[in-house]
Write a structure and sequence with these properties.
353 residues; alpha/beta; Enolase-like, domain 1; TIM Barrel; eight-stranded parallel sheet; three-stranded antiparallel sheet
Length: 353
């Protein structure tokens, strides 16, 4: 069935430097997988490992993919998609971005062969949906300029990165709130930047505002601090770096540590695991967001398929072509008037082998 497999490292360059609480980046490295069948059909997947979040490194992900992702890996009935999901989870345990990339490539190829759009396979909930757009940490003047730019592009949710300095952050947030129309929501993401006392101060100062949610205000391992803040805060508290696995999500949600979770394919190990966490979250009456790392258009497109297939509460899929000027694909996810849609079929361009 699978005649060729290509595994390539790629460097993608940001359109502008992007700064969050613990880093500033101008480029990122990813891995792209191509599964090619005997008829020449191509399934694309991509891995964007984040050492800070999952402990993976690009070199280790590349090594295990080259060692274990062989033609023989796909020797079983290619239609047995759940069996392949279990096999991917087992063979590549501990490497969630590798798991996600393989499952993306497999499902993209499976979708082509069966002529079933993945958004329909996942549930077919809608044809388009709003996505938030994230604004990195910048001086106040530049922040306000970018907010105005994104408003002119019809984004309905602005997510503001914060977490370095409470007083500066509060001043910036208040100024942004002043220029937001009533139909536009503001969300905050501290990327673990605050202490518990600092996070409490932020919540206290902003309790009379209309902040949509406050994402990962404290360190990822400080679950008890998340719970304390969640129980005191009128603003919904969303876990991101704290939640990697299904087991993390189950504990954080079922024991009421947080209001909801931000699940990313590169953290959870692929779209099928995402769906498992989605169902858990909905069952417990909590909020779920689909987010992204610094990801290529390939994995962003898979995220959009999930966002269109399922009733996900918050969509944060603003990487890919929006972040990078040299993404090596065409088609797939598109953002128009603040909404994500699926455009032409996803395909590689000459930058890939």
């Amino acid at each position: 069935m699978i005649s060729k497999i290509f595994i390539n490292k790629e460097t993608l360059h940001f359109r502008a430097p992007f700064k969050i609480a613990y880093e500033e980046v101008t480029e990122t490295e990813i891995i792209i997988i191509q599964l090619i069948d005997s008829q020449g059909n191509i399934g694309l997947g991509s891995a964007s490992p984040d050492t800070e979040v999952t402990g993976e490194t690009l070199d280790k992900v590349s090594q295990i993919l080259n060692e274990k992702l062989t033609n023989n890996f796909f020797a079983n009935n290619f239609n047995s998609w759940y069996e392949y999901h279990k096999k991917i989870q087992h063979v590549f345990a501990g490497f969630p971005s590798a798991q996600a990339a393989i499952e993306e490539a497999y499902l993209n190829l499976w979708s082509q062969l069966h002529k079933i759009p993945l958004s329909c396979f996942f549930g077919g909930y809608r044809k388009s949906c709003n996505t938030m757009v994230t604004i990195g940490i910048q001086p106040l003047k530049q922040t306000l300029q970018e907010v105005k730019k994104r408003l002119s592009e019809d984004f309905q949710v602005i997510k503001l990165k914060c977490g370095l300095n409470i007083e500066d952050d509060l001043k910036k947030i208040q100024q942004v709130l002043k220029i937001l129309p009533s139909n536009v929501k503001l969300a905050l993401d501290a990327n673990q930047g605050y202490s518990l006392s600092g996070a409490k101060k932020m919540v206290k100062e902003l309790k009379e505002t209309s902040i949509a949610f406050f994402e990962q205000p404290v360190k990822a391992k400080n679950w008890e601090e998340l719970k304390i803040l969640h129980q005191e805060s009128p603003i919904p508290i969303i876990a991101d770096e704290s939640v990697i696995t299904f087991e993390d999500a189950f504990t954080l949600l079922s024991q009421n540590y947080v209001s909801g979770v931000n699940i990313k394919l590169m953290k959870c190990g692929g779209p099928i695991n995402f769906i498992k966490i989605f169902r858990l979250t909905k069952k417990l009456g909590k909020k779920i967001m689909i987010g992204c790392m610094y990801e290529s258009n390939i994995s962003i497109t898979m995220g959009v398929n999930l966002a269109l297939g399922l009733h996900i509460d918050y969509i944060d899929l603003d990487s890919g072509h929006l972040d990078f000027y040299d993404d090596p694909t065409q088609g797939g996810a598109e953002i128009k008037n603040g909404k994500v849609i699926l455009g032409l079929p996803l395909k590689k361009i000459n930058k890939l082998n």
